[in-house]
């Protein structure tokens, strides 16, 4: 069902300011989207994504899992009784959130 962890996402209050701060630490901007940026970190195969939002939220850090078949993964999780949000498409990614037994947020994405 899942092929890999796609990225680790941190919520920040200002993407542009935070981006400059991370770049000063040597992180390289790999992609910029609306309200978020993705960084490569050294030789790591797992990037870091910063996403603008409410930093006071309880669970601002969550893994994003990549799948080649997001619709089947979505249906599969729903059939297992997992709480999922609606499928969303931001023009670059198709994604949805799901939650564990403790209401921890996790996300699944697909992009080409």
From TrEMBL:
It comes from Sediminibacillus dalangtanensis. Pfam families: Glyoxalase. InterPro entries: Glyas_Bleomycin-R_OHBP_Dase, Glyas_Fos-R_dOase_dom, VOC_core. This is VOC domain-containing protein. Residues 4-111 form the VOC domain. It comes from the Bacteria.
């Amino acid at each position: 069902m899942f092929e890999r962890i796609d990225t680790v996402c941190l919520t920040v209050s200002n993407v542009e300011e935070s981006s400059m701060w991370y770049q000063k630490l040597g992180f390289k901007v790999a992609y910029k989207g609306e309200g978020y940026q993705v960084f490569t970190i050294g030789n790591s195969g797992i990037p870091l994504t910063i996403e603008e939002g409410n930093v006071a939220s309880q669970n601002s850090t969550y893994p994003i899992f990549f799948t080649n078949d997001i619709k089947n993964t979505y249906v599969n999780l729903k059939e297992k009784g997992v709480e999922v949000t609606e499928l969303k498409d931001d023009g670059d990614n198709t994604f949805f959130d799901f939650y564990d037994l403790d209401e921890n947020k996790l996300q699944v994405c697909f992009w080409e």
